[in-house]
């Protein structure tokens, strides 16, 4: 295989840690055959790094194991080109196994694979599509660590400093950039569908086409986040999937659409009515019942909780309804054959593998328990908030709810709860140890 590549050609092999950050190695062409057949060793503790790439000593993966290696194996049969790279380079997406070849379940891709397997055992296949929002920034934002809207490079050359939702003119001014994003998606096999201008200045949303491979849907989301950042730098732009880059502007969400097929390929959420089947109702109930315990997955960082404000199109209560964008779980209007659920809680800063594992796991829990949801919300869900369960609205509260969760232990595993919980606790300690500029302004 390596005979196909010569000279300075290199490969980036990476896994996705629990925070959704890519960790791996850059490999020369002559090492490709070994990589694709035997995999690459990385310490298993890498999966549980904190957001800044430091060991988390309390997660049980470091000193207790002698910081032992796992085996990272490619998940695609061939390397995938990286069209935005300055030199010839491909990428290899991998997931981690134990040294004996068994799955290493803190690996987020392995966790999602296991959840999908539980659906398969019941004769169901999840069909999934994601919607990712991001901000396009000017080229100096990353260096300054302060977000600033970009200047349109074509047309009138204005700075995108105001909301212009669904604007075609705004898209026209960035035609070359989005053409290159489309080209990179096609080369990498990322099934990008519509791109729209969103509510914030320089905010856009990419919708992925649905697929009956939920793990692949998460792969596409991870690849797109890397792709759009790489293409943006070619145009002297920055990008951010941060949940809330601007305090007074719209946040970035990661919405999940899903349905279930039976072994004959029928959508089991469809019973010929707009209400959907009993299985859909069970799935909705499971999503609502386990939403609070899953918030640390949907909102993994300190900034994540700034999205959840009344009237901000991000849900603050465990609610559901038909064709209602103020609720957490929406049943979109569609043809009966396309009956599906939209989960609207996660931020774009969340790990797509964990988001899908938590969403599908909660739906499975509702189906297996034949749970019944409350009455759907009609109208403004925020105005009926006193009747609903408030979701954890702080990082520490979400961490406590997560660590006490029987659902998380039963569906994602005891080891995952230990490792991920320890990671979030260490991150909170680091953040709380730093003195912010706001404190200096108020108290110095």
From TrEMBL:
Its EC number is 6.3.1.-. Coiled coil: none annotated. GO terms for molecular function: ligase activity. Residues 108-444 form the GS catalytic domain. Pfam families: Gln-synt_C. SUPFAM superfamilies: Glutamine synthetase, N-terminal domain (SSF54368), Glutamine synthetase/guanido kinase (SSF55931). SMART domains: Gln-synt_C. Keywords: Ligase. PANTHER family: GAMMA-GLUTAMYLPUTRESCINE SYNTHETASE, TYPE-1 GLUTAMINE SYNTHETASE 2. Belongs to the glutamine synthetase family. This is Glutamine synthetase family protein.
